[in-house]
């Protein structure tokens, strides 16, 4: 057997051959990469044997910890049968069983499962289904093929998903490739675009949304939204009742509600799906990240009977949804996703999560008093700490100061891995994280924030 390359060797090869996502490679090439070789529970372990707490669930995917025996076993068992066969004109047991299991846990009314590979493709599929649905349902009416979305939305990095996204730093330079959309201000209460305060505002930010729907519903196929938490925007949590109102408005104006639960799905917000907090059933829904417990890339777009039925007809009607991917319905992915759902039931993951959500809130309390912590947002096991240069005026740190990045580096040295979004520190540990581990994470987080933002006699904040 080939000898395992040394850390030094891997480190050189990484910097010679790899191109990392969302990474300035010039900087990367000058640093020593952290190379994760294994994991166990809430920990990641590097090639030197050093352990780190996984504070971001390996970028929002892991749920039950690394190397969970049930998930490991499900993959090994499926591997003994077959790794992959196609869903084009064929079927396979894990894909069938997973679809059935999903329908049982999804918001009521979602009855069909269309598989793909990642969050971006699940979103693309939802957009295409929405456009084709309206063509099929109203063949003689004018085109109903544009989308409404919120500013600061993030729905993935493929071109269609970027079109309904709005994070200028990521998306701005690709504008020429994107289709036009309608945009509305998000419910970002800490920096309210209307300078109002919840609840006395009565969610006035929904008025311009209703205005757009009223004026443009004839051309709007759907309103795509990240329910409860706009994740990549910096974990912006929407006020209670907001999603329900969005659902009502979409129904009123006959515009499909597309829920992107790629980040919020599978317990992250405290319920299985974010929509369930407000008793909302979207017309289309995208899921991915937690679907396999963070093990393999797999995604699904879910929809209602109403939409599904619009695509039915004789072959020659050409109502078929002409979309698919090479790995659609991959048996290994589906097998581990099925085991993921079993764990939720067997281990009562959601019931056991509730006290931990409360503990998390209590642990974070002291951080609110720190001089550069502007706001702490929490929805279930999703936490954001927005840092500000000036707490009084809420003036953000200039992006070039990389305050989030410096805090993450500090935390790494202390054994906690984080991936900030600009000035927002995200803490989103696996749902299986124990209370002592949680305490340790918040301890390290607080120490790292203090070290980096400590007011100095000659610096800002003094
Ligand atoms: C991560 C994410 C996506 C994109 O998923 P990928 O698997 O990275 O393509 C889409 N929507 C939301 C809300 C996400 O957080």
Major sheet size, sense and barrel closure: 7 strands, mixed
Radius of gyration: 23 Å
Named once each, the bound ligands are: pyridoxal-5'-phosphate
Topology, number of strands: 17
Q: How much of the polypeptide forms β-strand, as a percent range? A: 15-25%
- The third-level CATH topology of the largest domain is Aspartate Aminotransferase, domain 2
In spatial order, strands of the major sheet run: 4-12-11-10-7-5-6
Number of helices: 15
Gross morphology is globular
Give the structural class: alpha/beta
Note poorly predicted spans: none
The CATH architecture of the largest domain would be 3-Layer(aba) Sandwich
Helix coverage percent: 25-40%
Distance between the termini: 59 Å
CATH homologous superfamily placement of the largest domain: Type I PLP-dependent aspartate aminotransferase-like (Major domain)
Mean model confidence by pLDDT: 96
Count of all domains = 2
CATH class category of the largest domain = Alpha Beta
What does this structure look like?
- With 462 residues, the protein is of the alpha/beta class.
- The chain has 2 domains: 136 residues, Aspartate Aminotransferase, domain 1 (Alpha-Beta Complex); 275 residues, Type I PLP-dependent aspartate aminotransferase-like (Major domain) (Aspartate Aminotransferase, domain 2).
- The protein is 35% helix and 17% strand.
- The strands form 4 sheets. Strands 4-12-11-10-7-5-6 form a 7-stranded mixed beta sheet, with helices on both faces.
- β8 and β9 form a beta hairpin.
- α4 packs antiparallel against α12 and α13 packs parallel to α15.
- The longest helix is centred in the N-terminal third of the chain and has 19 residues.
- The protein is globular, with a radius of gyration of 23 Å.
- The model has no long low-confidence stretch (mean pLDDT 96).
- The site of pyridoxal-5'-phosphate has 15 residues, from α6.
């Amino acid at each position: 057997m080939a000898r395992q390359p040394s850390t030094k060797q891997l480190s050189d090869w990484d910097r010679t051959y790899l191109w990392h996502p969302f990474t300035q490679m010039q900087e990367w090439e000058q640093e020593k990469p952290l190379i994760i070789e294994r994991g166990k529970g809430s920990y990641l372990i590097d090639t030197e044997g050093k352990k780190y707490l996984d504070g971001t669930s390996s970028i929002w995917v892991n749920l039950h910890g690394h190397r969970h025996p049930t998930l490991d076993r499900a993959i090994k068992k499926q591997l003994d049968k077959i790794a992959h066969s196609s869903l084009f004109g064929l079927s396979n047991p894990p894909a069938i069983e997973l679809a059935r299991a999903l329908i049982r846990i999804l918001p009521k009314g979602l009855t069909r499962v269309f598989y793909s590979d990642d969050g971006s493709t699940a979103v693309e599929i939802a957009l295409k289904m929405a456009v084709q649905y309206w063509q099929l349902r109203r063949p003689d009416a004018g085109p109903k093929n544009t989308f409404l979305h919120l500013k600061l939305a993030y729905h993935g990095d493929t071109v269609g998903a970027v079109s309904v996204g709005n994070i200028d730093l990521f998306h701005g330079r690709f504008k020429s490739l994107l289709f036009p959309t309608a945009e509305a201000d998000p419910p970002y209460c800490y920096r309210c675009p209307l300078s109002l305060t919840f609840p006395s505002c009565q969610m006035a930010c929904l008025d311009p949304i209703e205005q757009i729907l009223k004026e443009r519903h004839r051309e709007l196929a759907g309103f795509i939204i990240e329910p409860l938490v706009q994740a990549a925007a910096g974990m912006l949590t929407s006020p209670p009742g907001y999603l329900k109102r969005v659902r009502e408005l979409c129904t009123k104006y006959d515009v499909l509600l597309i829920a992107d639960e790629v980040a919020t799905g599978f317990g992250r917000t405290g319920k299985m799906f974010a929509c369930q907090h407000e008793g909302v059933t979207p017309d289309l829904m995208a899921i991915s990240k937690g679907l396999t417990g963070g093990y393999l890339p797999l995604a699904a777009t879910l929809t209602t009977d109403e939409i599904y039925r619009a695509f039915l007809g004789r072959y020659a009607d050409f109502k078929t949804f002409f979309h698919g991917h090479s790995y659609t319905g991959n048996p290994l992915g589906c097998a581990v996703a099925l085991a993921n759902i079993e764990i939720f039931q067997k281990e009562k993951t959601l019931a056991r999560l509730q006290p931990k959500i409360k503990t998390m809130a209590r642990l974070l309390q002291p951080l609110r008093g720190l001089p550069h912590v502007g706001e702490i947002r929490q929805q279930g096991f999703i936490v954001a700490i927005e840092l500000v240069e000036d707490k009084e005026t809420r003036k953000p740190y200039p992006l070039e100061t990389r305050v989030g990045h410096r805090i993450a580096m500090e935390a790494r040295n202390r054994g906690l891995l984080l991936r900030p979004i600009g000035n927002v520190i995200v803490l989103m540990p696996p749902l299986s994280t124990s209370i002592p581990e949680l305490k340790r994470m918040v301890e390290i987080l607080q120490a790292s924030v203090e070290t980096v933002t400590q007011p100095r006699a000659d610096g800002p904040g003094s």
